[in-house]
Amino acid sequence: MSSIGSGYDLSASQFSPDGRVFQVEYANKAVEASGTVVALRCKDGIAFAVEKIITSRLYESGSNKRIHNVDKHIGMAVAGLLADARQLLTVARDEAKQYKHDYGVSIPVKYLADRLAMYMHAYTLYGFVRPFGCFILLAAYESDGPQLYGVEPSGVTYAYHGIAVGKAQQTAKTEIEKLKLSELKLEDGINEAAKIIYQVHDEVKDRMFELELSWVGQVNDGKHERVPAQIFAKAESFAKASLEEADDDDDEM
Amino acid sequence: MDVLNPMTYDAEEDQLRDRTKYSQMDKHLIPVEFQQQPVSTGTTIVAVEYDGGVIIGADTRTSSGTFVMNRFTDKLTQLTDRIFCLRSGSAADTQAIAQVVTYQLDFLSAEMNEPPLVRIAANCVRRMIYQYRDDFLAGMIVAGWDKKLGGQVYSCPLGGLLVRQPVTLGGSGSTYIWGYLDNNYRPNMTQQECYDFVLKGITLAITRDGSSGGCARIAIINKDGVERIDVLGNDLPKVFDL
After folding, report:
1. How confident is the model at residue A250 (pLDDT cuts 50, 70, 90)?
2. Which of A111, A154, A191, B217 is 20 to 30 A from A128, alpha carbon to alpha carbon?
3. Pairing of strands B62-64, B53-58
Protein backbone atom coordinates (compact mmCIF):
# COMPACT_ATOMS: atom_id res chain seq x y z
CA MET A 1 0.00 0.00 0.00
CA SER A 2 2.84 2.42 0.72
CA SER A 3 4.07 3.94 -2.50
CA ILE A 4 7.67 4.94 -3.01
CA GLY A 5 8.00 8.60 -3.86
CA SER A 6 11.30 7.97 -5.62
CA GLY A 7 12.78 11.42 -5.39
CA TYR A 8 9.63 13.49 -5.70
CA ASP A 9 8.77 13.21 -2.05
CA LEU A 10 11.59 15.18 -0.50
CA SER A 11 9.82 18.51 -0.20
CA ALA A 12 6.30 19.86 -0.33
CA SER A 13 7.26 22.22 -3.13
CA GLN A 14 7.51 19.36 -5.62
CA PHE A 15 4.84 17.58 -7.64
CA SER A 16 5.31 13.98 -8.65
CA PRO A 17 4.91 13.09 -12.34
CA ASP A 18 1.38 11.85 -11.64
CA GLY A 19 0.38 15.08 -9.93
CA ARG A 20 0.68 14.16 -6.25
CA VAL A 21 2.35 16.06 -3.44
CA PHE A 22 3.86 13.22 -1.45
CA GLN A 23 4.71 15.24 1.63
CA VAL A 24 1.00 15.93 2.16
CA GLU A 25 0.20 12.25 1.75
CA TYR A 26 2.88 11.35 4.29
CA ALA A 27 1.31 13.87 6.67
CA ASN A 28 -1.92 11.88 6.34
CA LYS A 29 0.04 8.79 7.37
CA ALA A 30 0.95 10.54 10.59
CA VAL A 31 -2.76 11.16 11.16
CA GLU A 32 -3.59 7.52 10.50
CA ALA A 33 -1.11 6.39 13.14
CA SER A 34 -2.77 8.26 16.01
CA GLY A 35 -5.55 7.16 18.35
CA THR A 36 -9.05 7.22 16.87
CA VAL A 37 -11.31 10.26 17.09
CA VAL A 38 -15.02 9.88 16.48
CA ALA A 39 -17.35 12.84 15.95
CA LEU A 40 -21.12 12.58 15.52
CA ARG A 41 -23.44 15.38 14.43
CA CYS A 42 -26.67 14.51 16.16
CA LYS A 43 -30.04 16.19 15.85
CA ASP A 44 -29.40 18.73 18.59
CA GLY A 45 -25.65 18.80 19.07
CA ILE A 46 -22.26 17.27 18.39
CA ALA A 47 -20.42 14.57 20.34
CA PHE A 48 -16.63 14.08 20.33
CA ALA A 49 -15.06 10.83 21.54
CA VAL A 50 -11.29 10.34 21.55
CA GLU A 51 -9.24 7.20 22.16
CA LYS A 52 -6.24 8.68 23.94
CA ILE A 53 -3.62 5.92 23.88
CA ILE A 54 -1.38 5.77 26.96
CA THR A 55 2.08 4.42 26.39
CA SER A 56 3.24 4.28 30.00
CA ARG A 57 1.66 3.78 33.41
CA LEU A 58 3.93 6.50 34.74
CA TYR A 59 2.08 9.29 32.94
CA GLU A 60 -0.34 11.32 35.02
CA SER A 61 -3.86 10.62 33.84
CA GLY A 62 -5.48 13.52 32.07
CA SER A 63 -2.26 14.89 30.60
CA ASN A 64 -2.02 15.72 26.90
CA LYS A 65 -5.69 16.15 26.26
CA ARG A 66 -6.85 15.90 22.69
CA ILE A 67 -10.07 17.89 22.97
CA HIS A 68 -9.83 21.66 23.44
CA ASN A 69 -11.89 24.83 23.37
CA VAL A 70 -11.51 27.60 20.83
CA ASP A 71 -13.64 30.40 22.27
CA LYS A 72 -16.58 29.31 24.38
CA HIS A 73 -18.72 27.91 21.62
CA ILE A 74 -16.30 25.92 19.44
CA GLY A 75 -14.72 22.59 20.33
CA MET A 76 -11.61 21.23 18.63
CA ALA A 77 -10.58 17.57 18.58
CA VAL A 78 -7.26 16.51 17.06
CA ALA A 79 -5.79 13.40 15.48
CA GLY A 80 -2.12 13.17 14.55
CA LEU A 81 0.98 14.88 15.88
CA LEU A 82 -0.04 16.58 19.12
CA ALA A 83 2.68 19.22 19.00
CA ASP A 84 1.51 20.36 15.56
CA ALA A 85 -2.04 20.42 16.86
CA ARG A 86 -1.00 22.64 19.74
CA GLN A 87 0.20 25.32 17.34
CA LEU A 88 -2.99 25.08 15.29
CA LEU A 89 -5.00 25.47 18.47
CA THR A 90 -3.12 28.70 19.21
CA VAL A 91 -3.76 29.90 15.65
CA ALA A 92 -7.46 29.06 15.89
CA ARG A 93 -7.78 30.89 19.20
CA ASP A 94 -6.03 33.93 17.73
CA GLU A 95 -8.41 33.95 14.77
CA ALA A 96 -11.42 33.74 17.07
CA LYS A 97 -10.07 36.54 19.24
CA GLN A 98 -9.34 38.78 16.27
CA TYR A 99 -12.79 38.22 14.77
CA LYS A 100 -14.46 39.11 18.04
CA HIS A 101 -12.30 42.21 18.32
CA ASP A 102 -13.05 43.36 14.78
CA TYR A 103 -16.72 42.50 14.49
CA GLY A 104 -18.07 42.21 18.01
CA VAL A 105 -19.70 38.79 17.54
CA SER A 106 -18.35 35.26 18.04
CA ILE A 107 -16.63 33.69 15.06
CA PRO A 108 -18.85 31.34 13.00
CA VAL A 109 -17.30 27.85 12.91
CA LYS A 110 -17.47 27.67 9.11
CA TYR A 111 -15.36 30.81 8.83
CA LEU A 112 -12.88 29.52 11.42
CA ALA A 113 -12.56 26.24 9.53
CA ASP A 114 -11.81 28.18 6.32
CA ARG A 115 -9.18 30.35 8.03
CA LEU A 116 -7.52 27.32 9.65
CA ALA A 117 -7.57 25.49 6.33
CA MET A 118 -5.88 28.45 4.61
CA TYR A 119 -3.20 28.42 7.29
CA MET A 120 -2.58 24.67 7.04
CA HIS A 121 -2.54 24.88 3.26
CA ALA A 122 0.16 27.56 3.33
CA TYR A 123 2.51 25.01 4.88
CA THR A 124 2.06 22.68 1.91
CA LEU A 125 3.46 25.15 -0.60
CA TYR A 126 7.08 25.60 0.44
CA GLY A 127 10.17 23.45 0.62
CA PHE A 128 11.52 24.87 3.84
CA VAL A 129 8.53 23.92 6.02
CA ARG A 130 6.60 20.68 6.36
CA PRO A 131 2.81 20.24 6.31
CA PHE A 132 0.98 19.87 9.63
CA GLY A 133 0.63 16.22 10.60
CA CYS A 134 -2.81 16.51 12.10
CA PHE A 135 -6.48 16.37 11.23
CA ILE A 136 -8.53 19.00 13.02
CA LEU A 137 -12.21 18.60 13.87
CA LEU A 138 -14.24 21.68 14.78
CA ALA A 139 -17.71 21.56 16.29
CA ALA A 140 -20.22 24.20 17.29
CA TYR A 141 -23.93 24.58 17.91
CA GLU A 142 -24.99 27.77 16.15
CA SER A 143 -28.27 29.49 15.38
CA ASP A 144 -28.83 27.27 12.33
CA GLY A 145 -28.09 24.05 14.20
CA PRO A 146 -25.05 21.87 14.95
CA GLN A 147 -22.07 22.19 12.61
CA LEU A 148 -19.12 19.81 12.30
CA TYR A 149 -16.09 20.63 10.14
CA GLY A 150 -12.91 18.67 9.48
CA VAL A 151 -9.64 20.11 8.15
CA GLU A 152 -7.09 17.78 6.56
CA PRO A 153 -3.33 18.30 6.42
CA SER A 154 -3.69 19.31 2.77
CA GLY A 155 -5.83 22.27 3.76
CA VAL A 156 -9.09 20.86 2.42
CA THR A 157 -12.12 21.24 4.64
CA TYR A 158 -15.47 19.47 4.57
CA ALA A 159 -18.61 19.65 6.65
CA TYR A 160 -19.58 16.28 8.13
CA HIS A 161 -22.56 14.45 9.55
CA GLY A 162 -20.20 11.99 11.18
CA ILE A 163 -16.51 11.21 10.89
CA ALA A 164 -13.80 8.99 12.32
CA VAL A 165 -10.09 9.75 12.02
CA GLY A 166 -7.03 7.80 13.14
CA LYS A 167 -5.93 4.20 13.55
CA ALA A 168 -9.29 2.55 13.24
CA GLN A 169 -10.98 5.08 10.99
CA GLN A 170 -12.27 2.53 8.49
CA THR A 171 -13.88 0.27 11.08
CA ALA A 172 -15.26 3.24 12.99
CA LYS A 173 -16.71 4.75 9.81
CA THR A 174 -18.59 1.53 9.14
CA GLU A 175 -20.03 1.68 12.65
CA ILE A 176 -21.02 5.34 12.22
CA GLU A 177 -22.81 4.60 8.97
CA LYS A 178 -25.07 2.18 10.86
CA LEU A 179 -26.43 5.03 12.97
CA LYS A 180 -29.33 7.27 11.98
CA LEU A 181 -27.63 10.53 12.87
CA SER A 182 -30.42 12.87 11.86
CA GLU A 183 -32.72 11.28 14.45
CA LEU A 184 -30.15 10.65 17.14
CA LYS A 185 -30.37 12.80 20.28
CA LEU A 186 -27.15 14.14 21.78
CA GLU A 187 -27.42 12.10 25.02
CA ASP A 188 -27.62 8.92 22.95
CA GLY A 189 -24.98 10.20 20.56
CA ILE A 190 -22.47 10.45 23.41
CA ASN A 191 -23.12 6.83 24.35
CA GLU A 192 -22.83 5.66 20.76
CA ALA A 193 -19.57 7.53 20.23
CA ALA A 194 -18.06 6.02 23.37
CA LYS A 195 -19.25 2.58 22.28
CA ILE A 196 -17.55 2.95 18.88
CA ILE A 197 -14.28 3.91 20.51
CA TYR A 198 -14.36 0.87 22.77
CA GLN A 199 -15.31 -1.37 19.88
CA VAL A 200 -12.50 -0.28 17.56
CA HIS A 201 -9.84 -0.08 20.25
CA ASP A 202 -7.10 -2.65 19.62
CA GLU A 203 -6.41 -4.43 22.91
CA VAL A 204 -3.39 -6.24 21.53
CA LYS A 205 -1.41 -3.33 20.07
CA ASP A 206 -2.36 -0.56 22.52
CA ARG A 207 -3.05 -1.85 26.01
CA MET A 208 -4.07 1.25 27.90
CA PHE A 209 -6.19 4.09 26.73
CA GLU A 210 -8.18 6.91 28.21
CA LEU A 211 -11.53 7.88 26.81
CA GLU A 212 -12.17 11.59 26.31
CA LEU A 213 -15.74 12.74 25.75
CA SER A 214 -17.07 16.20 25.02
CA TRP A 215 -20.26 17.70 23.67
CA VAL A 216 -21.78 20.92 22.43
CA GLY A 217 -25.47 21.42 21.76
CA GLN A 218 -28.85 22.55 22.96
CA VAL A 219 -28.24 20.77 26.28
CA ASN A 220 -25.43 23.14 27.28
CA ASP A 221 -26.63 26.18 25.31
CA GLY A 222 -23.95 25.95 22.67
CA LYS A 223 -21.02 26.13 25.14
CA HIS A 224 -18.59 23.34 24.28
CA GLU A 225 -17.36 21.39 27.33
CA ARG A 226 -16.25 17.96 28.53
CA VAL A 227 -19.25 15.84 29.48
CA PRO A 228 -20.21 15.95 33.18
CA ALA A 229 -18.99 13.09 35.37
CA GLN A 230 -22.26 11.14 35.55
CA ILE A 231 -22.83 11.32 31.79
CA PHE A 232 -19.23 10.15 31.29
CA ALA A 233 -19.71 7.23 33.67
CA LYS A 234 -22.98 6.27 31.97
CA ALA A 235 -21.40 6.39 28.52
CA GLU A 236 -18.42 4.33 29.62
CA SER A 237 -20.54 1.62 31.19
CA PHE A 238 -22.81 1.59 28.10
CA ALA A 239 -19.71 1.11 25.95
CA LYS A 240 -18.26 -1.63 28.14
CA ALA A 241 -21.61 -3.41 28.35
CA SER A 242 -22.00 -3.49 24.57
CA LEU A 243 -18.48 -4.94 24.30
CA GLU A 244 -19.47 -7.80 26.61
CA GLU A 245 -22.62 -8.39 24.59
CA ALA A 246 -20.53 -8.69 21.46
CA ASP A 247 -18.22 -11.12 23.32
CA ASP A 248 -21.25 -13.20 24.39
CA ASP A 249 -22.49 -13.33 20.81
CA ASP A 250 -19.07 -14.56 19.74
CA ASP A 251 -19.17 -17.28 22.42
CA GLU A 252 -22.54 -18.54 21.23
CA MET A 253 -21.21 -18.96 17.76
CA MET B 1 -2.19 74.73 24.16
CA ASP B 2 0.10 73.57 26.93
CA VAL B 3 2.27 76.60 27.62
CA LEU B 4 5.18 74.52 28.84
CA ASN B 5 5.00 72.20 25.78
CA PRO B 6 3.44 74.24 22.97
CA MET B 7 4.12 71.73 20.20
CA THR B 8 1.49 69.19 21.40
CA TYR B 9 -1.62 68.63 19.28
CA ASP B 10 -4.98 69.34 20.91
CA ALA B 11 -8.08 68.33 18.99
CA GLU B 12 -10.34 70.82 20.76
CA GLU B 13 -8.06 73.71 19.99
CA ASP B 14 -7.78 72.55 16.41
CA GLN B 15 -11.55 72.56 16.01
CA LEU B 16 -11.72 76.00 17.59
CA ARG B 17 -9.38 77.29 14.91
CA ASP B 18 -11.85 76.08 12.26
CA ARG B 19 -14.70 78.11 13.67
CA THR B 20 -13.10 81.33 14.89
CA LYS B 21 -10.73 84.02 13.74
CA TYR B 22 -9.03 86.96 15.43
CA SER B 23 -10.63 90.32 14.71
CA GLN B 24 -8.17 93.21 14.58
CA MET B 25 -10.95 95.68 15.20
CA ASP B 26 -12.50 94.05 18.26
CA LYS B 27 -9.20 92.58 19.46
CA HIS B 28 -10.69 89.20 20.32
CA LEU B 29 -11.92 85.99 18.66
CA ILE B 30 -15.09 86.12 16.58
CA PRO B 31 -16.91 83.36 14.65
CA VAL B 32 -15.75 82.87 11.09
CA GLU B 33 -18.01 83.59 8.04
CA PHE B 34 -20.33 80.84 6.97
CA GLN B 35 -18.29 80.17 3.84
CA GLN B 36 -15.40 79.02 6.02
CA GLN B 37 -17.48 77.15 8.60
CA PRO B 38 -17.11 73.35 8.56
CA VAL B 39 -20.02 71.60 6.93
CA SER B 40 -22.21 69.77 9.41
CA THR B 41 -25.31 67.71 9.04
CA GLY B 42 -27.22 69.58 11.76
CA THR B 43 -29.85 66.92 11.46
CA THR B 44 -32.63 64.94 12.91
CA ILE B 45 -32.36 61.16 12.57
CA VAL B 46 -34.85 58.56 13.81
CA ALA B 47 -34.82 54.76 13.74
CA VAL B 48 -37.33 52.29 15.12
CA GLU B 49 -37.57 48.46 15.13
CA TYR B 50 -40.81 46.69 14.32
CA ASP B 51 -41.71 43.05 13.93
CA GLY B 52 -40.02 42.03 10.70
CA GLY B 53 -37.74 45.01 10.08
CA VAL B 54 -36.84 48.61 10.82
CA ILE B 55 -38.05 52.03 9.73
CA ILE B 56 -35.49 54.84 9.53
CA GLY B 57 -35.88 58.49 8.70
CA ALA B 58 -33.97 61.77 8.52
CA ASP B 59 -34.39 65.40 7.52
CA THR B 60 -32.58 66.72 4.43
CA ARG B 61 -30.68 69.85 5.50
CA THR B 62 -26.87 70.25 5.37
CA SER B 63 -25.73 73.55 6.82
CA SER B 64 -22.50 75.49 6.82
CA GLY B 65 -23.06 77.87 9.69
CA THR B 66 -26.27 79.70 8.74
CA PHE B 67 -26.02 78.85 5.05
CA VAL B 68 -28.05 75.84 3.88
CA MET B 69 -25.53 74.11 1.66
CA ASN B 70 -27.83 71.27 0.55
CA ARG B 71 -31.60 71.28 1.13
CA PHE B 72 -32.23 67.74 -0.16
CA THR B 73 -29.39 65.74 1.37
CA ASP B 74 -29.58 61.98 1.65
CA LYS B 75 -28.51 61.15 5.17
CA LEU B 76 -29.64 57.54 4.85
CA THR B 77 -26.47 55.87 3.58
CA GLN B 78 -26.60 52.27 2.44
CA LEU B 79 -23.84 50.03 3.85
CA THR B 80 -25.08 46.68 2.48
CA ASP B 81 -28.22 45.27 0.86
CA ARG B 82 -30.20 45.36 4.09
CA ILE B 83 -28.16 47.62 6.39
CA PHE B 84 -28.26 51.41 6.45
CA CYS B 85 -26.57 54.02 8.55
CA LEU B 86 -27.97 57.41 9.55
CA ARG B 87 -25.40 60.20 9.71
CA SER B 88 -25.27 63.17 12.05
CA GLY B 89 -22.38 65.46 12.94
CA SER B 90 -19.64 66.42 10.54
CA ALA B 91 -20.63 65.55 6.97
CA ALA B 92 -17.04 64.77 5.97
CA ASP B 93 -16.38 62.53 8.96
CA THR B 94 -19.57 60.52 8.61
CA GLN B 95 -19.13 60.08 4.88
CA ALA B 96 -15.60 58.81 5.42
CA ILE B 97 -16.75 56.35 8.07
CA ALA B 98 -19.60 55.11 5.88
CA GLN B 99 -17.22 54.54 2.95
CA VAL B 100 -14.69 52.59 4.98
CA VAL B 101 -17.35 50.44 6.68
CA THR B 102 -19.04 49.71 3.34
CA TYR B 103 -15.73 48.39 2.06
CA GLN B 104 -15.11 46.31 5.18
CA LEU B 105 -18.57 44.72 5.05
CA ASP B 106 -18.28 44.04 1.34
CA PHE B 107 -15.02 42.21 1.90
CA LEU B 108 -16.39 40.27 4.87
CA SER B 109 -19.54 39.17 3.06
CA ALA B 110 -17.37 37.86 0.22
CA GLU B 111 -15.29 35.84 2.69
CA MET B 112 -18.27 34.51 4.64
CA ASN B 113 -20.42 34.00 1.55
CA GLU B 114 -23.47 35.48 3.27
CA PRO B 115 -24.78 38.98 4.07
CA PRO B 116 -23.20 40.48 7.18
CA LEU B 117 -25.10 40.80 10.47
CA VAL B 118 -26.36 44.23 11.50
CA ARG B 119 -24.40 43.88 14.73
CA ILE B 120 -21.17 43.45 12.78
CA ALA B 121 -21.86 46.61 10.76
CA ALA B 122 -22.61 48.52 13.96
CA ASN B 123 -19.37 47.28 15.50
CA CYS B 124 -17.31 48.41 12.51
CA VAL B 125 -18.84 51.90 12.74
CA ARG B 126 -18.38 52.02 16.49
CA ARG B 127 -14.74 50.94 16.30
CA MET B 128 -13.92 53.73 13.86
CA ILE B 129 -15.64 56.35 15.98
CA TYR B 130 -13.93 55.10 19.15
CA GLN B 131 -10.50 54.86 17.57
CA TYR B 132 -10.63 58.42 16.29
CA ARG B 133 -12.80 59.84 19.04
CA ASP B 134 -10.56 62.88 19.53
CA ASP B 135 -10.73 63.80 15.86
CA PHE B 136 -14.15 62.78 14.60
CA LEU B 137 -17.46 64.47 15.27
CA ALA B 138 -19.80 61.66 14.26
CA GLY B 139 -23.01 60.43 15.82
CA MET B 140 -24.40 57.56 13.80
CA ILE B 141 -27.25 55.10 13.92
CA VAL B 142 -26.89 51.71 12.21
CA ALA B 143 -30.14 49.94 11.39
CA GLY B 144 -31.13 47.03 9.19
CA TRP B 145 -32.42 43.51 8.86
CA ASP B 146 -30.56 40.20 8.98
CA LYS B 147 -31.62 36.56 8.96
CA LYS B 148 -30.43 35.82 12.49
CA LEU B 149 -32.10 38.52 14.62
CA GLY B 150 -34.49 40.29 12.24
CA GLY B 151 -34.80 44.07 12.45
CA GLN B 152 -32.25 45.79 14.68
CA VAL B 153 -31.33 49.39 15.54
CA TYR B 154 -27.91 50.19 17.04
CA SER B 155 -26.89 53.61 18.33
CA CYS B 156 -23.23 54.69 17.87
CA PRO B 157 -22.96 58.16 19.39
CA LEU B 158 -19.99 60.52 19.73
CA GLY B 159 -17.45 58.79 22.02
CA GLY B 160 -17.67 55.32 20.51
CA LEU B 161 -20.51 53.65 22.39
CA LEU B 162 -22.50 50.76 20.94
CA VAL B 163 -25.95 49.96 22.25
CA ARG B 164 -28.94 48.24 20.69
CA GLN B 165 -32.23 50.06 21.25
CA PRO B 166 -35.75 49.39 19.97
CA VAL B 167 -36.06 53.08 19.07
CA THR B 168 -33.51 55.86 18.99
CA LEU B 169 -33.00 59.45 17.89
CA GLY B 170 -29.91 61.41 16.89
CA GLY B 171 -28.64 64.76 15.70
CA SER B 172 -29.24 68.28 16.93
CA GLY B 173 -32.98 68.13 16.17
CA SER B 174 -33.46 65.07 18.34
CA THR B 175 -33.36 67.16 21.53
CA TYR B 176 -36.74 68.66 20.59
CA ILE B 177 -38.50 65.34 20.11
CA TRP B 178 -37.37 63.14 23.00
CA GLY B 179 -40.53 64.16 24.80
CA TYR B 180 -42.58 63.24 21.73
CA LEU B 181 -40.88 59.82 21.70
CA ASP B 182 -41.48 59.22 25.40
CA ASN B 183 -45.12 60.09 24.98
CA ASN B 184 -45.89 58.35 21.70
CA TYR B 185 -43.65 55.30 21.35
CA ARG B 186 -45.10 51.94 22.35
CA PRO B 187 -43.44 48.56 21.79
CA ASN B 188 -44.93 46.23 19.13
CA MET B 189 -46.33 48.91 16.85
CA THR B 190 -47.34 47.92 13.35
CA GLN B 191 -45.36 49.00 10.31
CA GLN B 192 -47.82 51.79 9.51
CA GLU B 193 -47.80 53.08 13.09
CA CYS B 194 -43.99 53.12 13.10
CA TYR B 195 -43.94 54.99 9.78
CA ASP B 196 -46.33 57.64 11.12
CA PHE B 197 -44.29 57.92 14.31
CA VAL B 198 -41.03 58.47 12.39
CA LEU B 199 -42.54 60.97 9.94
CA LYS B 200 -44.27 63.00 12.67
CA GLY B 201 -41.08 63.04 14.76
CA ILE B 202 -38.97 64.38 11.93
CA THR B 203 -41.60 66.98 11.08
CA LEU B 204 -41.76 68.26 14.67
CA ALA B 205 -37.97 68.49 14.87
CA ILE B 206 -37.75 70.33 11.56
CA THR B 207 -40.30 72.84 12.85
CA ARG B 208 -38.19 73.75 15.91
CA ASP B 209 -34.53 73.04 15.05
CA GLY B 210 -32.76 75.58 12.83
CA SER B 211 -30.17 73.04 11.73
CA SER B 212 -32.83 70.58 10.52
CA GLY B 213 -35.15 71.26 7.63
CA GLY B 214 -36.24 70.53 4.11
CA CYS B 215 -38.04 67.27 3.49
CA ALA B 216 -38.17 63.89 5.21
CA ARG B 217 -36.48 60.83 3.76
CA ILE B 218 -37.74 57.51 5.10
CA ALA B 219 -36.69 53.92 4.40
CA ILE B 220 -38.44 50.69 5.36
CA ILE B 221 -36.03 47.72 5.59
CA ASN B 222 -37.21 44.12 5.95
CA LYS B 223 -36.47 40.70 4.56
CA ASP B 224 -38.11 41.59 1.23
CA GLY B 225 -35.86 44.57 0.60
CA VAL B 226 -35.64 48.31 1.06
CA GLU B 227 -38.48 50.73 0.30
CA ARG B 228 -37.48 54.38 0.12
CA ILE B 229 -40.02 57.15 0.54
CA ASP B 230 -39.26 60.84 0.16
CA VAL B 231 -41.90 63.06 1.74
CA LEU B 232 -41.51 66.51 0.22
CA GLY B 233 -41.87 69.70 2.25
CA ASN B 234 -45.50 70.48 1.50
CA ASP B 235 -46.55 66.85 2.08
CA LEU B 236 -45.24 66.72 5.63
CA PRO B 237 -47.99 66.21 8.24
CA LYS B 238 -49.52 69.48 9.44
CA VAL B 239 -48.31 70.86 12.76
CA PHE B 240 -50.15 73.68 14.48
CA ASP B 241 -48.42 76.94 13.48
CA LEU B 242 -48.70 79.73 16.01
Report:
1. low
2. A111
3. unpaired
